[in-house]
Amino acid sequence: MSGKTKARWILATMAGLLIGIPFGSPAQAASHKAPFDCGKTFYANNWSPGHSPSGSIDWQSYGSDAINGENVRATAGGTARFYNAGSTSYGLWVEITHSDGTRTRYAHMSSMVRSAGQSMSVSQGTKIGTVGSTGGSSAPHLHYEQRNSSGVVDTSPTVDGVTISLGQKKAVTSSNTCGGGTNPYTPEEVCGSGYSVIDSAALGTVGRVYLLYNSGNGYNCVTTLKFVSLGTPSAVSAFLEPEGSSRTTDSGSFSYYAGPVKRSAPNTCVKWGGSVGSTSYTSPFEHCG
After folding, report:
1. Does residue 201 contact residue 220 with C-beta atoms inside 8 Å?
2. Residue 193 forms part of a structural domain
3. Which of 86, 84, 154 shows the shortest CA–CA distance to 95?
4. Which of 60, 92, 142, 166 has the fewest Cβ atoms within 10 angstroms?
């Protein structure tokens, strides 16, 4: 190696020793939760030998908890990119790049919340798909990897405080979406495929109400996402009123959001809004195109 390269290598090695990280270790800085709904328990299998890549986890059914069709959620926040590897390898799969440059992969899913080739910003707990058996899979399970910023797979990944080393099989209970932190849902996820956010309004610090539109069918959709008491039912509402028509409202005690409220309103002005607790928003009639 060149003199400059060698000097950088020595400095990097010394820096790793000073902070207690073994040189070449694929340590993950992000704190990961299990990729499932709150309270779900599944086996995490770090097969060895014979699993490719070495260090990847196969999540499988545990006791009476069948994993097929379960929601797959981001183990940490970042930017998710969606792929379709076809009938081989990963099948339907997602890679999330986290803020520290590390990555996680989720494979063999039966469905994804975005089409292959698309991307979206996710928070810890955001739903990205459902468990299945696409690609090179013989039975429903979730293939999961933690990689460092160079793409090296961590052979002893940690989720929800449980480290699963090579050759180990452990039952892990998810604390993902159990309350607190960022709302794990997005307005697009609540309203469904084809809807895009065209407006939103803050409800102080307790939530936000969103107006979405689907140009394919002419429908508007309103949802209110709360930012407090996540996972615990509390008062939330969302409403939508096309001009000249009655108002449709969804209100009650909800754990994460109110809605979706959908109404056909092509070329029609709409009034929309919602509330979290005592904080509310009501728009004028607008978005008339």
Report:
1. no
2. yes
3. 84
4. 166
